[in-house]
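Can you make up a polypeptide sequence alongside its tokenized fold?
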Amino acid sequence: MLSLKSGFNFRNRGFKHTLVLIPGWATDYRIFTGLKLDYNYLLATGLCQFNQALLNQLDRLKIGKVSIFGFSLGGFLGAEFAANFPERITELILLGVRKRYQPKILQDIKYEIQKNSRTWLYKFYLNCFSRADTQGLSWFKKNLLKEYTDNLNLNELIWGLDYLSSHAITSGSLSKIEQIRIFHGSEDLIAPISEALKIKSDLPQAKFVCLAGAGHFSFLNPAFRERFYDA
């Protein structure tokens, strides 16, 4: 599971380029288990002090540039790293993001999960899937639902909410990133597609890919790889 202590797991899959996979709130690197993309993977296993930790890891591995694959909260972290170190970025890929979350809503979530995190998280995960996401939901229930609802650390969940309360994805900070793609499910209830379109409208260099019928966990859709390379 995720840790407040920064960490990374490098998987050399025999490809030329490396993709940094950053999970979203209330998930961890295992959410990317079924992702089949033609990269080596650098999986984020801890998110605290993310910018410096990733920079240090790239230097240790002697990797000059990477592509970032940031999902939800991971999109905010990935965008922040890209804004601070544009010279280390080949491409920024954002999934399930919005410009910002309202602090009051996040504060309410914090209150609810402190009362009963298991019940609240169970409903949250189900809302991450659309009616069309039958295969993704089936895989998630079989592999991660119980693990996440029973074992995610409350301090990690609260840290993520506090981070989101104080961060936004702004166009000015990403103006130096030449290659940006934004993937978003049309039925995303967690980050409505209208929010992602606002980000795209402020970034003329970005390409927007709408995943019709998909929810928040759009990359769990079996058609995601095809759409990724079509784009």
